Amino acid sequence: MFTASKKRKLTDDTKYYGVRAGKTPGVYTSWADCQENTTGFRGAQYKSFLSHKDAADFVAGKSPAGAKPTGDKFYGVAVGRVPGVYEDWGEAAAEIKDVKGPKYKKFATRKEAEEFVRSGGKNSGTAVAKKDGENPPAKKAKTAASTEGGKKLKDDGPLKVWTDGAARGNGKRGAQAGVGVFFGVGDARNVSEPLVGNQTNQRAELTGIQRALEMAPKNRPLEIITDSNYSINCSTTWYKTWMKNGWRTSTGAEVTNKDLVVEIRKLIDRREAAGVKTDFTWIKGHNDDPGNVAADELAVAGSRKARS
């Protein structure tokens, strides 16, 4: 059986991702690797475990020790800490606990759950009746714009997306950079791709923002979460001075990465013209934020892909 990411240092907290149906079935220790082998694969089946044996049993079609059968239920979390499709109610519940206005629903098929998440909770699909133990984890979540109970959905808050860039050998000859965009677990819009053009970390960071803007719904407020202050400043502040100066810096040099900044501003301006906000949030990198970690892993995986 194929086991990936062997070079990664394993700890007691390491998660193992079993891919039963995907491009290359096997056990992975990196979410980015799991994502790369399931995104775009019709009927993909994958799940995270705390032990390698349980993950391997899942891949082999066995029922992992101590695992509860899911009964082919898929929980779509459209608004929560980390939006995505979950096969375990406990995992889904953890993503909506204490979240204001969560949107979540249970489905019989992964396709319906993915469409629900992709639409931001607007596409209700065919819901499966909930059972005992599948109620919201807190009263706040129970009375919010619930989707499990079939109430009319509301658009509460912006769509959150995490972006990141990675460059192996940044600044050196032969550097390889990648782009990562994370909308949520199992979201088809997630991006893990090699960077086009100059292979620098800053270009990768900016490209991640551009890709997020291109793929996000044009009629829904967007919050882009990144650990790159440089990218945020380029996209929200510095560009104003650069435009006045003919895209020249204070020293008269041409602005680096002008092409990307111009495209990002075009996308943001179009959204603003339609009355749709785009906000940026800085987050400290490598600080155990699930979305940031996922975006980073997607970017690193992208940097490993062969450049054309």
Give your account of this protein's structure:
It contains 9 helices and 11 strands. With 308 residues, it is of the alpha+beta class. Helix 6 runs parallel beside helix 8 and helix 7 crosses helix 8. The N terminus is likely disordered. The strands form 3 sheets. A 5-stranded mixed beta sheet has the order 9-8-7-10-11.
Please sum up the structure shown.
This protein has 308 residues and is of the alpha+beta class.
Order of helices and strands: EEHEHEEHEHHEEEHEHHEH
Low-confidence residue ranges: 1-12, 138-155
Radius of gyration: 20 Å
- The assembly state of the depicted protein chains is single chain
Q: Which structural class is indicated by helix and strand composition?
A: alpha+beta
Largest sheet: 5 strands, mixed
Helix content: 25-40%
Strand percentage: 15-25%
Instruction: Count every beta strand, where a strand is a DSSP E run of 2 or more residues.
Output: 11
Give the CA-based shape. Answer: globular
- Helical run tally: 9
Termini distance? 30 Å
On the 0 to 100 scale, the average pLDDT is 80
Task: Write out the strand line-up for the largest beta sheet, numbering strands in chain order.
Answer: 9-8-7-10-11
